[in-house]
Amino acid sequence: MSFILQQQGPFGLFFAFAIAHSLADFPLQGDYLARVKQRRNASTMFEWVAALTAHSLIHAGAVWIVSGSMMFGFIELVLHWLVDLGKGEGKYGYATDQTLHLSCKAVYVVLMALGITLS
Prior knowledge:
Blueprint lengths: L2 H23 L4 H7 L8 H23 L2 H19 L5 H20 L6
Helix pairs in contact: 1-3, 1-5, 2-3, 3-4, 4-5
């Protein structure tokens, strides 16, 4: 069980995930990653995949730090990559993108509150 969940309960844990998400999606992303993680803005396929993966790794690290679970961090890497791929390809907009990301965090909270940490 994470320290935050123990000390603050599920709502405190979700709040910590939301704060970490905001930090990773805004100041830690920067203009370059925000632009090039979209395939149409990258010069090469490698640049696009590297930018999208780097951005997703920042989120994975944030989830790992908050949850204490490397597996939740890995799951976040994959899910964040896929959600941002969909947004970058124009499948949905900003509101849906953010809702999907925060929904992932809500699922992590529920799993952790149930004692499922995937450590």
